[in-house]
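Page 37, continued from 36.
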């Protein structure tokens, strides 16, 4: 028994040594494997351009990169690269000594990387277009760019509880320079039924006069969807003389869903016709059921011959020509004066179905040939006319037995 004790101690010692060796081998293998993985990671990220240790990280992007108006620079945080602990401590010890030099070097480094942008320690990758993600508030009034047509800013709302159409006039923009010193008026009509205009006066002058007025139309929910809002902008001089600035028609169908939405509409300017203009005076008497008109004169006519000019006037109800009258011939003048008066019998119930058609003609000696046509003008309700021609007809109805005189441009026959 005593002989086996030393042998047993030797075996235990050898076993412990072998176990310690085995643990050392396993530990070394684990450390080697871990080191190989770390070296492989370092090789993968080594393709990133090197950046000075104490400067803001900068990576090059497109050489033409520049944050323009309406763009926000978009950046990503820097990539974390594991570093040696000793190196980090060494950096911390030198940081206080080179603090002043670091700022200068960082600024020089940023300037050296033209086309790149560094926001502290963040990497720039481009910019975000704010216009793609922002929405204009419903009640925001933004003026249109300069050089465009005269525009009217307004909003339309229908109140079902009271059956009222509320039109809020806000402002005009890009008014023509010759109207800047005049007073500006806006006349609104709800076509085709409402003949009484609503009028708003601007509270200022200049290129962008403001109104800030609300005009109310009493109309049922059934009729409002079939109606059209007629807008007429007038410029009034100090002596009371009016000039038409422009007009616009705004169909209400499909535009009443979103209350408070600000709308911009271009005005159609009032311009002289290439074919010339004619001056007409209209008046209507409901008691006598009589429509009276006077063809006063014309200007700027494009004469084809020296045969003279005459005016033919036709009263039309729907598609039927009721009566036709012709003036005398005025010869050899581009600005003839007619002063030709005529009357037509017209019942009040036909005021919304009838129209007047004016034709300026060159008469022919040969009656078998039709006269040469210089221009055409149609005055009537919403069924037949728009713009100034429609307003002239409406003013004739609203101002009973009072002559309403206006100039109209001639158009081509259709």
């Amino acid at each position: 028994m005593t002989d086996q004790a030393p042998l047993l101690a030797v075996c235990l010692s050898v076993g412990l040594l072998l176990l310690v060796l085995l643990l050392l081998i396993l530990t070394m293998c684990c450390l080697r494997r871990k080191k190989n993985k770390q070296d492989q990671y370092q090789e993968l990220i080594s393709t990133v351009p090197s950046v000075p240790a104490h400067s803001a990280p900068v990576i090059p992007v497109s050489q033409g990169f520049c944050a323009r108006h309406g763009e926000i620079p978009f950046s990503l945080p820097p990539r974390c690269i594991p570093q040696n602990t000793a190196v980090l401590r060494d950096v911390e010890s030198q940081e206080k000594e080179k603090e002043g030099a670091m700022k200068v070097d960082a600024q020089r480094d940023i300037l050296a990387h033209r086309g790149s942008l560094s926001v502290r320690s963040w990497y720039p990758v481009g910019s975000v277009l704010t216009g793609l993600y922002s929405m204009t508030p419903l009640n925001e009034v933004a003026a249109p760019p300069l050089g465009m047509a005269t525009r009217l800013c307004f909003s339309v709302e229908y109140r079902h509880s009271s059956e009222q159409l509320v039109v809020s006039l806000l402002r005009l923009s890009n008014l023509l320079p010759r109207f800047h010193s005049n007073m500006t008026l806006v006349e609104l009509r709800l076509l085709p039924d409402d003949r009484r205009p609503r009028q708003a006066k601007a509270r200022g002058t200049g290129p962008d006069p403001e109104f800030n007025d609300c005009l109310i139309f009493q109309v049922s929910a059934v009729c409002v969807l079939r109606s059209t809002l007629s807008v007429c902008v007038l410029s009034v001089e100090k002596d009371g003389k009016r000039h038409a600035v422009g007009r616009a028609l705004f169909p209400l169908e499909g535009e009443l869903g979103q209350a408070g939405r600000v709308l911009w509409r271009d005005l159609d300017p009032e311009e002289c016709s290439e074919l010339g203009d004619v001056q007409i005076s209209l008046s209507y008497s409901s008691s006598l059921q009589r429509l009276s008109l006077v063809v006063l004169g014309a200007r700027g006519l494009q004469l084809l011959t020296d045969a003279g000019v005459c005016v033919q006037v036709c009263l039309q109800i729907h598609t039927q020509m009721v009566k036709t009258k012709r003036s005398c011939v005025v010869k050899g003048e581009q600005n003839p004066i007619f002063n030709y008066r005529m009357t037509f019998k017209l019942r009040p119930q036909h005021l919304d179905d009838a129209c007047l058609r004016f034709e300026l003609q060159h008469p022919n000696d040969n009656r078998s040939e039709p006269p040469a046509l210089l221009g055409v003008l149609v005055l009537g309700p919403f069924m037949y006319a728009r713009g100034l021609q429609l307003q002239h007809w409406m003013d004739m109805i609203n101002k009973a037995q009072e002559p309403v005189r206006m100039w109209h441009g001639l158009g081509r026959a259709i």
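The two ends are 137 Å apart (CA to CA). Flag for discussion at group meeting. The first helix runs from residue 4 to 44.
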